[in-house]
Amino acid sequence: MMKKLNLLQKKLGHSFNDETLLVRALTHRSAGSRHNERLEFLGDSILSMVVADALFHRFPKVNEGDMSRMRATLVREKTLAELAREFELGEYLILGPGELKSGGYRRESILADAVEALIGAVYLDTDIERVRELLLSWYDERLNDIQPGVEQKDPKTRLQELLQAKRKPLPTYTVVDVIGEAHNQKFTVHCLVDGLPDPVIGIGTSRRKAEQSAAEHALDTLL
Amino acid sequence: MMKKLNLLQKKLGHSFNDETLLVRALTHRSAGSRHNERLEFLGDSILSMVVADALFHRFPKVNEGDMSRMRATLVREKTLAELAREFELGEYLILGPGELKSGGYRRESILADAVEALIGAVYLDTDIERVRELLLSWYDERLNDIQPGVEQKDPKTRLQELLQAKRKPLPTYTVVDVIGEAHNQKFTVHCLVDGLPDPVIGIGTSRRKAEQSAAEHALDTLL
């Protein structure tokens, strides 16, 4: 395990003084009581602050609404899961037997949560300035690319605007399946889009997330 | 103005190197283009991080859900407006003519926003460690008093639980008035509670906030 973790630390750009923090950050709650949720709570707030500060200085003329939207884009689950895949984090996650089987749809959020937990772990391992430096390196390209404006709209809004621009009818969303218990539900949504022969499927832990996921898939197909 | 600002700086516990930051933090958007909304964005994220970090270390055994609820209590508008009143911030706010007249219901959020803007201003004036130290002094008592558990529930939940415990019917909420344009609306809600002769009134910038406000007033009356 330790040898393997060395490779991960190289990819992350941080070599832990206390490797138990790294192991903790990689441990999903399904794998036992020493899991990463407290670190995730801490890391989430650090990431928000570092990104807010970076945007504040990079965009001296942009209003707080546009800064909020850019930050939301940079810290959302999808972006964090992309980072996780750049680190090949999936290979290092410590999951319980239930999660190992479930695969697919919860994977994205587990990866994103682990990235936040890693941020919390690096902070505890060092200090705020070191974690800031590391985050700015992780986000270097994304911070250079991001611009205030349209890209920060959510997928449903973008899909609607795209269809309106083409003078097509609005998409319709239907929940076709809900499984699981109260706090662990999986929603499946069909999105019907004029011009696409089949409904586009979206899956998520809430109706809203499932709809956004379907809209995003529809945009991928249309654009 | 400068003499007056010296008194405020004493109350805040920070003497600004750059007093234009302080003036900016006190300037509501109604008073002109050099207003405090960008500072508020920055300060909000700093406050969240500092409070998350403080809770993480003070409550080593508490799960992330309880930490989130405690943080929400500590950074919510009501708490920030309390801090503002401790600093007598209302006397220093720079408001446009419209806001000066409107008084009342928007006051709480303007005060809370200005506290966040002050946090952003102190950060830009110094650095993260200095602003952390200052925030921990502002929050000293609140951090000592806060405990994981029931108090962090929102007012509607607490009202419902109180009535259930007394085997009384649940409260009902009705929107009785909405005024203003799309992004600046004011909702008025009536909350009917068994045992109270008149509906309890709540006002807020969204239906949800107006309902929470009504529930809070109902709790004040019942407890």
From TrEMBL, chains A, B:
InterPro entries: dsRBD_dom, RNase_III, RNase_III_dom, RNase_III_sf. It holds the Pfam family Ribonucleas_3_3. Its main location: cytoplasm. It catalyses: Endonucleolytic cleavage to 5'-phosphomonoester. The keyword Transmembrane helix does not apply. Mg(2+) binds at E40, D113, E116. Residues 5-127 form the RNase III domain. Residues 154-223 form the DRBM domain. Its cofactor is Mg(2+). It is found in: Cytoplasm. Its EC number is 3.1.26.3. Keywords: Cytoplasm, Endonuclease, Hydrolase, Magnesium, Metal-binding, mRNA processing, Nuclease, RNA-binding, rRNA processing, rRNA-binding, tRNA processing. GO terms for molecular function: ribonuclease III activity. The keyword Repressor does not apply. The active site is at D44, E116. Digests double-stranded RNA. Involved in the processing of primary rRNA transcript to yield the immediate precursors to the large and small rRNAs (23S and 16S). Processes some mRNAs, and tRNAs when they are encoded in the rRNA operon. Processes pre-crRNA and tracrRNA of type II CRISPR loci if present in the organism. Belongs to the ribonuclease III family. Homodimer. This is Ribonuclease 3. It comes from Zobellella iuensis.
